[in-house]
Amino acid sequence: MHIRKYSSIFYTLLLVFFLEKSSGEGSGRLLSEVRQLTFDSIRAGEGYFSSDGNLLVYQCEKVPKNPFYQIFVLNLLTGEDKQISSGIGKTTCAWIHPSGKSVLYSSTHLDPNSLDLQSFEYDQRASGKSRKYSWDYDENYDIFSKSLDTGQLSRLTKHKGYDAEASYSPQGDKILFSSNREAYSKPLSEKHKLILQRDPAVFNDLYIMESNGSNPRRLTSALGYDGGPFFNSKGDMICWR
């Protein structure tokens, strides 16, 4: 019994040693010439390259009087950093059209309570109360497309529910996205009402639609989160989490 016990401890320590060693070596092999791209934001993340690699779309917190993410496009050739979203409400999950001429993203700026929610978030931070991090599956998220040339904004979804995590097909004619709209469009059992209140992501399914927002089709239907979908390079397969 003692031999088995100490053998188990030995192999556990050995495994930890090799994992730490391989982790350190792996970062050196996989990452090189690392450069910081954003400096003036409180937080920044979820960035994606344009198809030619010259633009980077990302979300960050740096718009005055708004504690939530807003969408920006950074030109990696010139250094120009351009705000894409309105500066009101919450935004997330941006993607650049393969043509490089428009940006896809989700926003709650049409929610009439946006400014009140911004003030409330600042009050929560000022209170000093610790909060567990969790993503906000706000039912007012809709998907928008904005032209980089003209600035024209087009609303692509109009359903109550979280419409976000969208990406273009390689040809730019289709959009994949995640949504829990079904939970808001049909009667729910008391059990499912409680689940929706506690964890709305449980009802997220994958959808596909035309790039102008028409002909949305549901791709998954099993209870449980489906999101973060992307096309492969040919546009005939998708991956998601």
How would you characterize this protein structure?
By secondary structure, the protein is α+β, with helices and mostly antiparallel strands. The chain has one domain: TolB, C-terminal domain (Neuraminidase). Helices cover 23% and strands 28% of the residues. The protein is built from 4 helices and 14 strands. The strands form 4 sheets. Strands 1-2-3-4 form a 4-stranded antiparallel beta sheet, with no helix packed on it. Strands 5-6-7-8 form a 4-stranded antiparallel beta sheet, with no helix packed on it. β1 and β2 form a beta hairpin. It is globular and about 55 Å long. The two termini are 43 Å apart. The N terminus is likely disordered.
Distance between the termini: 43 Å
- Percent of residues in beta strands: 25-35%
**The named CATH superfamily:** TolB, C-terminal domain
CATH class assignment: Mainly Beta
Please tell me how large the radius of gyration is.
21 Å
Total strands: 14
Sheet of most strands? 4 strands, antiparallel
Order of helices and strands: HEEEEEEHEEEEHHEEEE
- Which CATH architecture would you pick? 6 Propeller
Q: Which parts are unreliable, with pLDDT below 50 for 5 consecutive residues or more?
A: 1-19
Mean pLDDT: 91
How many distinct helices? 4
The share of residues in helices is 10-25%
* Assembly form of the protein: single chain
Q: Report strand order across the widest sheet.
A: 1-2-3-4
CATH topology, anyone?
Neuraminidase
Structural class: alpha+beta
How many individual domains?
1
Shape: globular
